[in-house]
Amino acid sequence: MTANVQTDVDLSAVKTAKRANILSLFTSGSTLICCALPATLVAIGSAATLTSLVSNFPQLIWISEHKPLVFGLAGAMLVIAGYLQWQARNAPCPADPQLAAMCTKARKNALKIYWLSVAIFGVGAFFAFIAPFFV
Hints:
This protein has one domain (2-134). Helices cover 85% and strands 0% of the residues. It has 5 helices and no strands. The termini are far apart.
């Protein structure tokens, strides 16, 4: 009975880490919308596209004006997701071979999502804070 409770708790940790990773992916995506998208559109000469985008989605201006807050929240989510990923790394998978394979695959996918989030955050941070010094 206690083994089932322990496995349920560990599976809960894996699910929580997966949810945090997906949330960190979305928050990291906001850093691209904030800074990388406008810089890319201007760099390729699509200022008219950027103007149309901003007129249809004026929230982009707010996001760009508050980029320290956006990056702070995204960074905090990445730290939380990384911590939860670290905590779930050794959680046992079910004894059933099919469920164990699914558990292992879910862990690998969650780790890929996490590193994709980190890469997206890095690209956004480059365009927000480093690239302006080269322009």
